[in-house]
Amino acid sequence: TDKVSKISLVDLAGSERASGTGATGGRLKEGAAINKSLSALGNCISALADHHEVGATKKDKGKNFIPYRDSVLTWLLKESLGGNAKTIMIAALSPADINYEETLSTLRYADRAKQIVNAAVVNEDPNEKMIRELKEEVERLRALTAG
């Protein structure tokens, strides 16, 4: 049978504070755009974590809008974030005290992501699945008539 999968590897580095980088001009604009995308991703992660929170009622879950369209990054990661996927997030931390705030922010970000629960299932072509099931049924019926 044909089974389909997709892998997405995303490096979310680049969320440094503008004042700490000394960037100007184009680099500063690029950094701002990256931070805007990371902020949109954080909003999606928070909305998904709230959606999957233990004790959330169906009524609460229905109100929870996931803002995937707020950035290209979140739109591209939609299936990985809240869809039919197994997702792993690796948080890179710094032991240096100068990076304390950023490390704490990264840990909070990862903690929210950890609360997202996806129920991934095997992606199988529906036609292939039907053919496989029919072949299994034919074999089962042959075994019944032979025995």
UniProtKB/TrEMBL annotation:
InterPro entries: Kinesin_assoc (IPR032405), Kinesin_motor_CS (IPR019821), Kinesin_motor_dom (IPR001752), Kinesin_motor_dom_sf (IPR036961), P-loop_NTPase (IPR027417)
Pfam families given in the database record: Kinesin (PF00225), Kinesin_assoc (PF16183)
Domain Kinesin motor: 1-116
An individual GO BP term: microtubule-based movement
Keywords: ATP-binding, Nucleotide-binding
MF (Gene Ontology): ATP binding; microtubule binding; microtubule motor activity
Family named by the database record: Belongs to the TRAFAC class myosin-kinesin ATPase superfamily. Kinesin family.
Protein name per the record: Kinesin motor domain-containing protein
Organism: Hemiselmis andersenii (Cryptophyte alga)
